[in-house]
Structures are given as C-alpha cells and as structure tokens.
Amino acid sequence: MKLEFERDEVKELLSLVVSHLADEAKLKKADLAKLRTWSSSSMREGSDGTRELTEKVNAEIERTFKTKERSAIVKPDWK
Predict the structure, then answer these.
(1) pTM for the full model?
(2) How far apart are CA 3 and CA 24, in angstroms?
(3) Is 11 exposed, middle or buried (0-12, 13-18, 19+ CB in 10 A)?
(4) Which pLDDT score, from 0 to 100, does residue 32 have?
(5) Domain carrying residue 63
(6) pLDDT value of residue 77
(7) In the Cβ-directed half-sphere of 64, how many Cα atoms lie within 13 Å?
(8) Distance of alpha carbon 71 from its chain centroid, rounded?
(9) FRET pair for 59, CA 20 to 30 Å: which of 6, 8, 50, 73?
(10) Is 2 contained in some domain?
(11) How many distinct structural domains can be found in the chain?
C-alpha cells in the first residue's frame, strides 16, 4: 500500500495541528501570535519549509507501513 500526501494536504494538516495546539496549550498571546505568524508566513504552500515537511511526513508514513508489513510477517497468527 502506498500513501503519499501532496503539499496542500500537509499544509492543511499543519494548520489543524497549530490550531489545536493554540486551543489546548494555553499559550501566552505573544507566543500564540508568533506561532500563527510562523505558520502563515514561513510555511506557505510553495515554501521550502512546506516542501521539506511534506517529504518528512511521506517518508515517515512509508517507514511506518514497511514496519507494520514486516511485523505482520514476523508475528505468528496465534499470538
């Protein structure tokens, strides 16, 4: 199985994580503003940061699938 995210999907995922973090972490207003500024300016859809994050997310998903696949082969069904 192959799953690969596009840059716009990773940007949306990042947006959701930042939003959740902002709601749950009880950050100071200045820290929250810095986080949102970073997210909106440094992590634009076509930026190097977004490209690098997309590559890392896709590599991690691939690694996880390969680990799960390997684990299923190694583990006996009766356990």
Answers:
(1) 0.71
(2) 29
(3) buried
(4) 87
(5) 7-74
(6) 64
(7) 9
(8) 23
(9) 73
(10) no
(11) 1
Question: If 0-12 CB within 10 Å is exposed, 13-18 middle and 19+ buried, where does residue 60 land?
Answer: exposed
Residue among 69, 50, 78 at smallest CA distance from 2 = 69
| CB-based contact 45:14 (threshold 8 Å) | no
Instruction: Give, for 48, the enclosing helix (H) or strand (E).
Output: helix 48-74
44: closest CA among 23, 15, 21, 20? Answer: 15
Residues in the chain: 79
Dihedral sign for Cα 13, 19, 23, 29, please.
positive
79 in a structural domain:
no
Q: Is residue 1 part of a domain?
A: no
User: What is the per-residue pLDDT across 29-59, written as a single tens digit (0 to 9) for each?
Assistant: 899 889 888 888 888 878 888 999 999 999 9
